Amino acid sequence: APIxxxxxxxxxxxxxxxxxPAWMEGTDYSGLRLPxxxxxDLPDSAYLQLVVPTGHADSIDRPWRxxxxxxxxxxxxxxxxxxxxxxxxxxxYELANLAFNTRYAVExxxxxxxLAAWIAETGDEFALPRL
Length: 131
Prior knowledge:
alpha+beta, Arylsulfatase, C-terminal domain, 17% strand
């Protein structure tokens, strides 16, 4: 299952046998490991982001946002750069960028929509490039 950083808190509480407070963001994945603990509704994707400056000397110098889906797709949009689309099931090392292959235009549009919805939902100010 794709996991976001906001899932660490709820999962840690769940692994300790504690209930997750209603105000806490994220998903509790402890039900996948602990017998008798119900697995919550698991998301089918994880969202990714880089906010600059990171303070790391070897980091890239522009922000990006992305999504990785349970069915094996990874889509990334960089500010002022071409998109990246990978089929992780067939290309786990991300060697073939499918973003501009017309055969995958529908998939790119679907993931662009999901990423745009997540950006809007979280109040992010990232300027997602238009298709």
